[in-house]
Amino acid sequence: MNREYINKNIFRLCLLGCLIIASSLYAQSDVVIDALTDEMQRSLVDLRLEDADPPYYMKYLMNEEHNCQIKAEYGSVTRCNCMDANQLFLDLRAGDSDLDNSNVMVGYYGNSMDMENVPVEENYTTLRKATWLLTDRAYKRAVENLATKKAILQTLMQEDTIKDLSSWEELTNIKDKASPQVDTAEWKEKLADLSAIFKDYPQFKRSSVELHTKTENRYILNSEGSIVRQGRHAHYLYVNVRAQDKSGLPVYQYDRIIVDNIDDFPDEQELTAWIKDFIATAVEMLEAESIEDYIGPVIFTPNAANQMFSELFLANISNPRKPLSPDNRFDSYIHDPKLVRKVGFRVMPDFLSVIDDPTLSDYKGKKLLGHYEIDDDAVSAQRVNLIEKGKLKNYYMSRTPTKKLEFSNGHGRLIQSMFGGTVVAGKPGNVIVQADETYDFEELKDQMLELCSAMDLKYGLIIECMDFSGMPDPDEMTYFSRQEKSTLPEVLTAYKVSVKDGSMTPVRSLEFVNVSERALKDILAVGNDFEVYNIMFDRAFNNLASVVGPSILIEEMELTKTSAQSKKPPIVMNPLERD
Predict the structure, then answer these.
(1) b or e along 380-418 (b: 16 or more beta carbons within 10 Å of the residue's beta carbon)?
(2) Total of domains in the chain
(3) In the listed set 216, 237, 258, which residue is the last one of a domain according to the structure?
(4) Which domain holds residue 407?
(5) pLDDT, tens digit, for every residue of 356-411?
(6) What is the value of pTM for the model shown?
(7) Which of 447, 505, 565, 566 is the most buried (most CB within 10 A)?
């Protein structure tokens, strides 16, 4: 029996001891914790294939979910679905922390965690059985992936290797479980009343008001002895309209409110005013003109600026390690965070700094939905200085090491990747933009118009909203998606500002051209109108983040008319149309 084998078994026994001690410290019985702990203990001792490495690390992550979706159109509820769903994920590693089965693309699901749907009526026996099957499948897959990874590495010239898992101390954090908050009868009535307002606007082909809610209890248990249970709520109120302009171009507008407590939604009077303000903007955009091409200065209002900031900056410092790939088949499925390699370099003007602090629950009296205490790697949340005087100092880290950073900074968060797999990756929490010098919005407009005058332009551009909804077009059965020529989606709400007299004219149906993270360097000035913008990582609604930022003025951007095709309108008039 060789020394390496003996050392690995000693290590596994130490992990097992930590797990037994941690579970015994939690006296109150929880069937999920009991079942997962017992199956993990058994797997660490008994799970091994002949001539294969045993698991050296395991992490169970289980979501108990209660989801509701209520949708109303023109005064009637068209959908009300509520369901419970329990999903169990497993990150099982074979090998050791220097080289294991993770961080390699061996299929379209890459290095995503293994998953099993488990019974919603929980009992110890059914949970143990589901966990046993999941663990067996995950281990066999891990052994295969590790062998594939070793074969790939033999074909590559590697100057230095990066560890696959960083260390972290064990952590126990047990919170009370969350219970559903939504009164479906009450909200069906509310949405029906709000959607009835659209009866007076037959120019819209479609309109709806929707409520999506999630109550979730998340368990995290790993073989290092960590046990975490956290409850949370996420509620998403969404309104949208679709129409066609006179030329047949599609017109889409949306707005949404996201809260983590159902009582934080505005009252009925305020919601009615919100819907009417939305309709006024939608009507204005439907009647707005479109412009062919524009190259010049652009102001993003706080809402649009935070959208742009999320896409050009946050996405490019998230999930920082690219997995190993045998060829280029999976390139389009692999996230490439372009700013990660620029740590220490200037990526923004020197008057801007950016922090991320998930430990904050509010900012200047406004609630931050990116708040959490423990991330999904069972690591305590940490404040991170991302940008200092324009220079990139850090990026989001889970427990997956990179060349420049080895250890987690408490930003490992559960996401559903673009190919459908579920992973824990470095992602934002509460992002706060800080500026040494700010301006009133009118001063930003004056600066923009001065630039336009120097460039012999007749107008400048103010952008208020882009299409970050991720919602499908029911008439086309496709998702609105950004064009390959740009990293930003279509502009939904914008205004051109006359250099001659400062008048504002609504414009729409614009797309960005050749926009990349380099545009961040072209920020000339920012406003003093900081606002909170909440974002979702994925359609699975797994985690939320908040971005606090101001209006920004960018020296030059290129936009063009949307590439969407004009189509013939319906042959017969909308039945809501009045003489």
Answers:
(1) bbbebebbeebbbebbbbbbbbbeebeebbbbbbbbbbe
(2) 2
(3) 237
(4) 335-435
(5) 999 999 999 999 999 999 999 999 999 999 999 999 999 999 999 999 999 999 99
(6) 0.91
(7) 447
